[in-house]
Amino acid sequence: MTLTDVRRAAGRIRWYVRELTGESAYDRYVAHARSRDPGAPVMTRRQFERSRTDAREADPREGFRCC
Amino acid sequence: MPEPQSTTPAQRQRALSPKSIAIWGAVALVGAIAWAVLALSRGEEVSAAWMLAAALGSYAIAYRFYSRFIAHRVLKVDKNRATPAERLDNGVDFHPTDRRVLFGHHFAAIAGAGPLVGPVLAAQMGYLPGTIWIIVGVILAGAVQDMVTLFFSTRRDGRSLGQMARDEIGPFGGAAALVAVFAIMIILLAVLALVIVNALAHSPWGVFSIGMTIPIALFMGVYLRVLRPGRVSEVSVIGVALLLLAIVSGGWVAESSWADTFTLEPGTLVVWMIVYGFLASVLPVWLLLAPRDYLSTFMKVGTIGLLALGVFIALPTMKMPAVTDFATSGTGPVFAGSMFPFVFITIACGALSGFHSLVSSGTTPKMVQKETQIRMIGYGAMLTESFVAVMAMITACIIDPGLYFAINSPVGVVGDSVQAASEAVTNLGFSISPEALAQAAKDVEEQSLLSRTGGAPTFALGMSEIFSAVVGGTAMKAFWYHFAIMFEALFILTTVDAGTRVGRFMLQDMLGNVYKPFRQVSWKPGVWFASAVVVGGWGYFLWVGVHDPLGGINQLFPLFGIANQLLAAVALAVCTTLLVKSGRLKWAWVTAVPLAWDVAVTLTASWQKIFSDDVKVGFFAQRDKYQAGIDAGEVLPPAKNMDQMHTVVTNSTVDGVLCALFAVLIVVVLADAGRVCLKAIRDPESVKLHEAPYVESRLVAPASIIATKEEKAELVAAGVGPEGGNRKETAPAGTGTPE
Description:
heterodimer; A: 3 helices; 67% helix; B: mainly alpha; 4 strands; 68% helix; disordered C terminus
């Protein structure tokens, strides 16, 4: 196993964890907003994370987990 | 309504190659041998390896053949049809998510304490009945329900089960489904909270470490809100480290002068639980719920992985017999009633759990990238949960059966000293010496393990047995025991919080029909009132469960099981109706057969709980017996005084009425669904489906974890990387793929 392999594996694990925890949600949001209009106004990360928890506040059924 | 048309890979590649025939033949053979060993061994101890082989062999075959059949022949998943995630992509809640990520999400959402509790309780009938139901049930019922619900919800832009019931069956069935969900939520929360109270009572170690999770979560909440928004991974790592510290320091506290402060009676814990439940559900999401969710997901996935590893390395032997006498006599101390129907309602999560239909028709369908991936996510994740249930069964069966019964029988049976417990266990047909009972408690640094009902302590004991065999030996037993307790308590508390919020939301929605402001989540009095009602609801059953002389778990768990299986009946009825309405009558048996089984089980159990003359089983028979005692001025055991006699009478009446209500709800939903199906068969032209219109998909992505040769060729032709994405001739967009 070469160093490149290790780095690639580490990169994939990091990608998976970030996706799974929702840490990459902001990047995705920005990418999505900018995909049509590169100059589109976007929320800051702070605003975005707040709006996400506010949405959950408004409808707690989102993201509900089972017993 | 014409049958949906699509070309499927199943039609193209029907014949199996000689190589795959050989491989699958070998898998089938190993599975069959393992089943034979499990079923035929009598009087000797069987290695858990056989259980693992039987489970994994059966899952592999079911996934390869049955789920494929459902996906391609029954549902006719269409890789050319755009999913709501693709059509409605807003980068936030609707977005095409990588299949492996979504599998993780979905699994974390469906797996919780449920599959760890039910199998432990069902182990009183031996390992075989429960294991058969977990494996056969998941293959033919549970995973099918999850997958088909996910499919139909995806076709409807991620509509919830309740909405689908209202749209496709009618307002009557829809309303019944709504009431069912609410009632189930209350019972579910009460039973889960009871599991925790029973595990934490008189345990300063446990109480301290669980208590510490609150400040840890608050810290994480502030960190994510103020210090470094959105940095979930780093805060979770800090959180888990603090959590491990909390477990270790629990041991120090238990030996210090603070021990008495943290030694709580069950009644006191109930009060704390209720206060916590109320506060947690009115506090902002970011402060407590969101960080707790991260913490419990990390712990859940990590611990389940560790447990699987431990089981495979240690390969313990099972001391519990394959089938105990309680399977037929129905006189088991953990829960009353015989194998049919009670094993099938005791084990819900892991085999067939109605609650999953809420997840399969909520968040997940909005994130599915391709319809072809529904098989891996819906069916695959449920098979994984079933495997968790099998591991829970193993943990319960590797501890000494005498100890198992001493832990899991109500106080009324085991008494309150090791001598009395040892005698009681002998009367049940097993044996354990008082010294062995005392030693078992000492090993895990608990005052006593007697009558620690609810499954969590048994599971923790089994897990500490497995882990300490791998790492640390006997010296680590206490740590692993409290680690397991903490792990279960953590996500039960998260469920209590989240469930109370969902219940409150539903209640606010219903009350909004009467008085408008209730619907606004920002109207504080409405929030507080609805929260108080929900917390009061589960708090009542929790209080009752702790003080019931007949044993709370013994009384309430069947009710919880019936409720959960009722929800499964609603989900399967919706699925069957949709199969019939969408022109798939020929394949309706795929969900109709599990539905028929589930209804038979649930209604038989309800019938026995309501009408049985056996005072151990029938709620009203219990009521009559204790009422007669009160009238005659006698105190009947296990009640110790007149107050307890009255408690029994009230509880039995409430439980019996609730049971009857559940049975009526099932019948209503079924009758309404039956009416709609008949109408659809008689007059196919009249059918109105609420499916979202067909839009051609531009996304290309593999269906399963590993891309097939054909899929790879397709990806290359479309000009996208191995993770899939939009076809190159169109504008590229973020699809959640790695850079």
